[in-house]
Design a protein that fits this description.
285 residues; 6-stranded mixed β-sheet
């Protein structure tokens, strides 16, 4: 019997203690109630689905076009598309003095990210899988965001009630920046829940596909300068002509230096005569 009376007394004491703090939080006591939790929890599970496929195709360009058309057909959207080719190896085959055939083996890959309705996810994955030769890898992940969604809802409700009390003057917040931060948190939580709703409604699928190496042949100009040398006899004739020109230039150069040449010859003659006189000595009788 005593226990039956202690529980109401404890609840009354708790209410009196809350009112004792200037009555500022009197309406927040019932903000998180069992009814609220049940009402929010039965609104539906927030399941976010994501998927990915890596597969081989016959033609990357055509497959990308088919996927784009398929996505548009189910009211989806291509949010990322990237395609590129990488040369694996290359060889130049000479077909003439100034032309070569360049044979290149290159690999083509593509990546796409699409946003499609979650209700069409399985159907979309099956149709995309049929576009390829075979599937290397296929995955799908489901993340339950129900508790995160519910947590944001309850926090948003608490903050909304606090702002309402502040406007009515029941709660006094001394610093204006605290009110601003509170409202910013409410906006962030609203945006976060809208993002969850969008993620639940639309799934993100990442696609990566490739094709077998492709051989490309093209005739281009020979970029080796040595390939453009003149024929042997033409080069020999030019060498003889250049040699005659050098010989003529030497003769002309020597003609310009005739004074120095004569002076050198004269000096050499004098030096030779002087040495001859010095060697021949008179014979004494």
């Amino acid at each position: 019997m005593k226990t039956k009376f202690l529980i109401p007394l404890a609840g009354l004491a708790f209410l009196c203690a809350c009112k004792g703090k200037s009555g500022s939080y009197e309406t927040l006591n019932n903000s998180i109630s069992a009814d609220t939790l049940m009402k929010d929890s039965i609104s539906g599970a927030k399941l976010v689905k994501t998927a990915g496929i890596h597969f081989k195709v016959k033609n990357v360009q055509q497959t990308a076009e088919h996927i784009a058309a398929l996505t548009t057909g189910i009211n989806g959207m291509v949010i990322h598309h990237q395609m590129g080719s990488t040369a694996e190896r290359s060889q130049d085959i000479r077909i003439s003095n100034d032309s070569v055939m360049r044979v290149t083996a290159f690999n083509t890959t593509a990546e796409m990210t699409v946003k499609i309705p979650s209700t069409k996810l399985d159907e979309f994955l099956n149709q995309v899988g049929h576009l390829g030769i075979y599937v290397n890898d296929r995955s799908m992940d489901i993340t339950d965001k129900s508790l995160d969604y519910l947590s944001a809802q309850l926090k948003l409700k608490n903050r909304a009630e606090l702002v309402s009390q502040q406007r009515k003057g029941k709660i006094i917040i001394k610093k204006p920046e605290d009110v601003l931060n509170l409202k910013d948190d409410m906006i962030d939580q609203q945006i976060g829940n809208r993002q969850i709703d969008d993620a639940v409604k639309n799934s993100i699928v990442t696609l990566s596909f490739y094709q077998s190496n492709t051989i490309n042949k093209e005739v281009i100009a020979n970029d080796d300068p040595s390939a453009y040398n003149l024929p042997f006899f033409r080069r020999l004739g030019m060498a003889v002509e250049n040699g005659w020109g050098i010989f003529v230039d030497v003769i002309i150069g020597m003609a310009n230096l005739w004074v120095f040449i004569l002076a050198g010859i004269g000096a050499w003659v004098l030096l030779r005569n002087y040495r001859g006189k010095k060697i021949i000595k008179p014979i004494k009788s």
